[in-house]
DNA sequence: AATGAATGAGGCTTCATTCAT
DNA sequence: TATGAATGAAGCCTCATTCAT
């Protein structure tokens, strides 16, 4: 028991260090020696836990995405209305980025442009997340909360893209500040939902009280 | 003269090759030997034109951005209405990406996450472009075409972010196709402008015929 | 006792695994982790039995050579005639190689070219074996069965070299097959003994019934 | 011209150094830094000429085998009689080993036990050499100079094996001396040819004056 | 102006080996 | 006795970059 826990701890230690190093320097410029120094572990030990440098990189988002995913699933069950759900998802995601700056940087600035990452187990977790978003959007379109004359993929892209753009700038330029960033979620989401919404004011989904939470999980 | 022209040609040759190589392999995995092979120029010669590898990378978007910028400026002069202008900018930008896939990849997938690129002359061109967008947005807010209860930076982010997200996916996943991508511009812009718009239907800027083209350049 | 036996068993286990690994991959390319996996023993445990990797390698032939040596000694006592004895030695040796392919590979392909192996206890066993061969040859020369105008070392070299060459090819190329290899012993030995023989046909050693078995051991 | 020559010189320089290093330390224990030091060339430069360490190793015998092969071909044309030819081949080969101790060590102690070497261009040169030997042996069997009740492969193995064994001992033990080694060629060959010979004394090939040199080349 | 040739620098990775349990 | 875990040491190899021609 204690052995396995220790191992798990060590792994997390290394992953955190790696996230920090790669977030600061980028993947290629961040070296294994850097990660070793940062984590207080020998270089060789890193290879006990991760088969190679790229595998280390790809392992960074796994845990974190897991946690985020669970949190989102949990909250979605408590919320009625697709617009509200969409807002919740984006809000939680943004919050997560703010609270885990290094992970955010690794995901947004490094992994997003790595083609090999697409074939990764970690990327599957991301795809699952995207599916959740899709479900919410499609539900919203069906029940009339969202415009149904738009490709749902486009709706998703607009929402996520806006957020990612802001996050990327926040990471790269340090602007806006964390507080501003959080304050912006609402107006941004409002604008998005408005652009994406059906035009009649919110809460108009006649069936929304019937949507059982399990739907979201599908 | 002929000497200078030849030099300029060679430079372009190298830049194109570099764009292709970096677009395919990424910056670190694309090597100077690769660029040399692709361009048919010796490695050593590359250093005659570019002081080092990063400088080569940073030089890639210059020309192209220049051309795009000029084209946008030209078109903006012919268009009235902030919404229309915004649409034009985004459309031209998207068109540019589609027609210059390698440049798009270098800009969107590589340069965007390079902090040192921020201090670059090439990045200034980008900032100038952003200012143009800002100007259009602010004008639109002033004359009531756009909501004025939103941070203009947020409006810009929403517009650019949506587009960049779609472009990134197009580059990384090959999805959507070029044609789809182009077809999507309009609905996407509509949604954006609607979300960002003042609510009363378009074309309502009473002063838009007064906006003199030169304003935009400022 | 049981403890000691267990220890001995474990050692043999490891040695066999090591022989297999080194035979397949060579000494440097075969790793301690490989041996650990193959033997079902932990890496650390290997070091309980063998002080280091080279010592493990050098220990491989000991047991086996011991067994071979005993078998040869036993048979030699039953045979009269130097030519017959020589034939027996070579035959038994060849048989041993065929029946212990991994050991053969380790000895012929790895240890033979290791200078440090020369200083080993295991190598002493080999030298003792060579002395047995020498004794037989010298006896054969004395009693007129073998040519006495040739350096005995040369005779030995010719016999052993021929055999080793064939064995090496068998190990490296898988050619000839085990059966062919065994069938070849006789003609090869005939040729050798003929080349090495005194010319008058065999069995002509007038004193051979006087050779007492103990001589051979010396 | 001068450029190519210089390149070729450099390559030879490196190969000689590599032969020396590997002969002394073995392949794995001899390092690229060692070769660099020995050859007075930088490590990186070695990789300009040889794609990797193993390729460097495999390239060592090429030149040398080439030279030996040519010399043998040349001499064979001048010699009548299969036995004499066989003797010549073995003698020249032995001489070559003595005059190129490092190459001999690399070939006999390192390459001979490397399975990947078998797929090498350099190994083809060796196979060609073996074919020459085979041809001589088969010719000798046909015209009655050699026993025809033995597998020719076995005859070849006996001859080469004897020689290689002696050479290996010479390399490993420094015994016999170069002079002794040379002096032994004749008696050894006599014994071999005698063992392998048809029994009637030499020179009995009735057609041997008809054998045209070209035969050998086939 | 153009390049073939050479190399310094440094990263990733692998193991043999140790040690605490 | 047995081993999981940790690491020091070191080698291969790759490139960006320089320089003589």
UniProtKB/TrEMBL annotation, chains A, B, C, D:
Residues 31-50 bind DNA. GO terms for molecular function: DNA-binding transcription factor activity; transcription cis-regulatory region binding. Residues 8-68 form the HTH tetR-type domain. SUPFAM superfamilies: Homeodomain-like (SSF46689), Tetracyclin repressor-like, C-terminal domain (SSF48498). It holds the Pfam family TetR_C_4. The keyword Hydrolase does not apply. This is Transcriptional regulator, TetR family. It comes from the Bacteria. Keywords: DNA-binding, Transcription, Transcription regulation.
